[in-house]
Amino acid sequence: MRTAVRDALAEEMRRDDRVVLFGEDIAAAGGVFKATPGLAEEFGDERVFDTPISELALAGAAFGSAVTGLRPVIEIMFGDFMALAMDSLVNQAAKYWYMSNEQAPVPLVVRCAVGAGGRFGAIHSQTPATWLQSVAGLKIVAPAFPDDARGLIAAAVRDPNPVIVLEHKRLYPVKGEIGAEPVEIGSARVVRSGADITIVSVMRGVHDALAAADTLAAAGVDAEVIDLRSLRPLDHATVVESVRKTSRLLAVEEGTELGGWASGLVGAVAARALGDLDDVWTLTTPDTPIPYSPVLEDAFLPDADAIARSVLERLAVAGPA
Amino acid sequence: MSNAGGGSSPAVAAVEHEGLLDLYGQMVRIRAFEDEMQRLFLRGEIHGTVHLYTGQEACSVGVCSALSAGDRVAATYRGHGAALAMGTEPRALAAELMGRSTGVCGGRAGSMNVIDLDHGLIGCFGIVGGSIAAATGAGLSLQRTGGVAVAFFGDGATNHGYFHECLNFARVRRLPVVFVCENNLYGEFTPMASVTAGGDIRARAAGYDMPAEKVDGNDVELVRAAAREAVDHARRGDGPAFLECLTYSHLGHSKTDPGAYRADGELETWMARDPLTVASERLAQAGMPADEITGREAAVRSDVQAGVALAVADPYPDPGDPAAEYAQ
């Protein structure tokens, strides 16, 4: 996954010299998650550079440069730090194309490492997707596989308006084939076909859902798994098409039920296909900050076992022997 | 950069007052515009609130007169002056404030958020300090083209994280940005001195290792001279520069502000230092005939009033238009 991120950035920078990359420790050090090594050497200080620890300036400079001719890609090291960058993203970048009456687009990309399970505690483990999901004018992508990471980052850099790229920390070591084509932002993908239930997630949750599907198969439940890949815009159509077949929907989110994308998704699907649904629910995290202790954090996260258990209970099916 | 009301007078050929009649004309243009906007606000034609620039005209006119084609400006929610100084048409600006389809942003933006890229205005920023960030980013782009970005902001913004983060960022990247603080002594309704540690804004900027000057912001010639130095510094590739313009808002913070916090006599003192008066008296002292000065004022006011009158008759956007379906 790391290689996919770096290769996508390198490829886009070779294609278009307006693409510049800046952030904290991304140049000389190659990023604290090692997603950008070698780029400073290839493209030089004018296009790849380290910044002060100044998220207001980082996001603000990304916005200002995007509306005056550059195509900046910035890294906000941990998604949690997005709270500091939100003014420029939410109040300026997201609104500029519309508010200016379409005088100029805002081609900027923000990459950030998100997600729990790394024992980083409450303030280095969040996934800020839903902080941003309600903001018209933003796009949010959240790849689960290296190929999609590459394709979505390529699409993000080429997009005329702001795109947030969420990279799950626990997916950086994931290996996989990498293609060369951009992936359409806002398009979900059925990653496992099934007839009995549709399980929807993003990023790490897709891997957990796939593992849960194997467990469920052993119990005679045939699960379809959908990787949303983008959280804004959100591909309701693919999910609706799936539940028309399976009649059951479970949305798995590494985040709280209240205000979460999973709750929003089941609501939207119900509004479009209530007559096709026998059951619909979400599996989310407890309503607390993310705990530090490994024991607490593991219990906090909806992993593959939790997903399988939840489905079996809900369907009143006995588990595999 | 706009050239309101015609050419220079040979009567003021003295080098020390180069183009002063034109600068005066541009300030009158802003004053006349704001007079019209105050009237339209009271009539209910302008919605929400409006932050008038009356009294601060010399700052934006002086600074923008030092710029060249290709330079960019980011201003504040008190941004009508910067927009007009960069060349935004009074009719298009007035229409925007009234939410009309002919507005410079089609009525989508409003007074606090005017954007006019064709005239080099990146935008007016409704968040305090937002202009500082936008200009810093523009500096990254302009570093490639030889242009200069200007951030206008108030004294209040110098207590904001954007000020400190962006001055540092711009300095370490040697960006061609001129940071212009229009110190009008109040952040909203609160006296600057009571909320600003040390009380010396120029010194704060100097602490970020850039040239930092403080000028009488009601004297357009002094502002222009200081701005030229700052702009030249930035354009040479020597990095950012800072300029503090000491000025005063005659009409308070916004249209909901009666100005009750002002000390007795303060407004009168500043009215006597009205930037338009400072400029017109200097023109007279330099030997310009009174009728030429008043003639310029009348011509500019008439031009603004004609533009505003057209805007008042302009149509509202059609709510049936697919604004919600704009291509994201």
Offer a quick outline of the entry.
The complex is a heterodimer of chains A (321) and B (328). With 321 residues, chain A is α/β, with parallel strands linked by helices. Chain A is built from 11 helices and 12 strands.
Number of strands of chain B: 8
Radius of gyration of chain B, CA atoms, in whole angstroms: 19 Å
Task: Compute the CA-based radius of gyration of chain A.
Answer: 20 Å
In percent terms, what proportion of residues of chain A is strand? Answer: 15-25%
What is the strand and helix layout of this fold?
The complex is a heterodimer of chains A (321) and B (328).
Chain A: H1 2-15, E1 19-23, H2 39-43, E2 48-50, H3 55-66, E3 71-78, H4 82-99, E4 109-114, H5 129-132, E5 139-141, H6 146-158, E6 163-168, E7 189-192, E8 197-201, H7 204-218, E9 223-227, E10 230-232, H8 236-246, E11 248-256, H9 261-273, E12 279-285, H10 294-300, H11 304-315
Parallel strand pairs in A: 1-2, 1-3, 3-4, 4-6, 5-6, 8-9, 8-11, 11-12
Antiparallel strand pairs in A: 5-10, 7-9
Helix pairs in contact in A: 1-6, 3-4, 7-11, 8-9
Chain B: H1 20-42, H2 57-64, E1 72-76, H3 80-86, H4 90-97, E2 121-125, H5 130-145, E3 149-154, H6 161-172, E4 177-183, E5 186-187, E6 190-191, H7 192-195, H8 201-206, E7 212-216, H9 220-235, E8 241-246, H10 266-271, H11 275-285, H12 290-312
Parallel strand pairs in B: 1-2, 1-3, 3-4, 4-8, 7-8
Antiparallel strand pairs in B: 5-6
Helix pairs in contact in B: 1-2, 1-3, 1-11, 1-12, 2-3, 2-9, 4-12, 5-6
